[in-house]
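Chapter summary example.
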Amino acid sequence: MRWRNAGLLALIRALTEPIAGLPAEVKNYKAKQEYRMSYNGQVCRLRGLLNDEFDADERRITIVDAKGDDANRYLFVYARGDGQNVLLPRMVRERHSPSLDKWDFEVNVPMELKEKELRIKAIINEYKLASKRYKINYM
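The structure predicted for these 139 residues follows.
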């Protein structure tokens, strides 16, 4: 009974107060991570994520393939057997080839979001495939 005094109760509250809010923090962290993990490198998902984050009302952010002709995107291979050309996707890009595109896709963003460019790039870099290159166009 002598241990039940106001000073000891205050000490116990002071020690347990940081732990009391922990379940709510864990729940919020879990919800945030589940939201992050629901997105991947697919174009429709990335576009949706960028629009949700930066332009939720008008949804003007779009993602398009980079412009270029098929000769730069595909490799023509001659097959000996039937004598016809085969069109294969170009998987390996030469590092110093001027004829190839410099980026794989373009992100079209409204001009009002130019000041948020670093955050936009961070989100794109987090979710895009490692081998893909992109360019941000401001409209």
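To summarize the output: The two ends are 74 Å apart (CA to CA).
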